[in-house]
Amino acid sequence: MSIEDALARARAAELDLVEVAALADPPVCRIMDYGKFRYEEAQRLKESRKKTIQITTKEVKFRPKIGKGDFDTKVRHMLEFLEEGHKVKVSLQFRGREMAHPELGKKVLDEVLEKLGPIAKVDTEARLDGRNMTMVLSPDKKAAANAKRANAKPAAPAATSASSTTSAADNNSKTA
């Protein structure tokens, strides 16, 4: 078909003549609404970007002489980051004479691992880099799923035992 005929058909249908395969012999063209095609293509790209998950690394800084309340708060934040699927870089900063006792820093990092339990797995072990001791943790999805299932199961029996206690109390009040 000649180009003029194809253009005439496209104009009659109020559509566009789009060259699909320029390298083919003869070149392949298609009659379509090009604006609509571009819009749908953009929507497909946007949808595919939504489905991708971006994993970022969050950093939490500790000190060897950190207080209990501060420690618990930072561990709670780390737990939230891991549940959201982020990696967590745990940094422990030493100052002055604290450098003489890296075992205190190792002890703090071990406590962090103990508190986080099975939810986190260690990507890089604790190591000393100058005045900082760092360790990278990532979420252990299998362990987190198991923990959620374990937390969900005990909740149901507890509710039934509470209702039976209430009914026993109601029975005692009726007899009195």
Sum this structure up briefly.
The chain has helices at 3-12, 34-51, 68-83, 102-116, 141-175; strands at residues 16-21, 28-32, 57-62, 87-93, 120-129, 132-139. The chain is an alpha+beta fold.
Observed structural traits:
5 helices, Ubiquitin-like (UB roll), Translation Initiation Factor IF3, 176 residues, two-stranded antiparallel ribbon, alpha+beta, 2 domains
Describe the structure.
With 176 residues, this protein is α+β, with helices and mostly antiparallel strands. It folds into two domains: 3-51, Translation initiation factor 3 (IF-3), N-terminal domain (Ubiquitin-like (UB roll), Roll), CATH 3.10.20.80; 57-142, Translation Initiation Factor IF3 (2-Layer Sandwich), CATH 3.30.110.10. Helix content is 53%, strand content 24%. The chain is built from five helices and six strands. It has helices spanning 3-12, 34-51, 68-83, 102-116, 141-175, and strands spanning 16-21, 28-32, 57-62, 87-93, 120-129, 132-139. The strands form two sheets. It has a four-stranded mixed beta sheet with strand order 3-4-6-5. Strands 1-2 form a two-stranded antiparallel ribbon. The longest helix is centred in the C-terminal third of the chain and has 35 residues, at 141-175. It starts with a helix and ends with a helix.
The helix-and-strand class reads: alpha+beta
Helical segment count = 5
Helix percent band: 40-55%
Q: What is the fold-level CATH name, i.e. the topology of the largest domain?
A: Translation Initiation Factor IF3
- Per DSSP E runs of 2 or more residues, the count of β-strands stands at 6
Oligomer classification: single chain
Give me the Rg, rounded.
32 Å
Q: What distance separates the N and C termini?
A: 100 Å
What is the 3D shape?
elongated
Largest sheet: 4 strands, mixed
Poorly predicted residue ranges: none
Strand content bin? 15-25%
Query: What is the count of structural domains?
Result: 2
- Order of helix and strand elements from N to C terminus: HEEHEHEHEEH
Broad CATH class of the largest domain = Alpha Beta
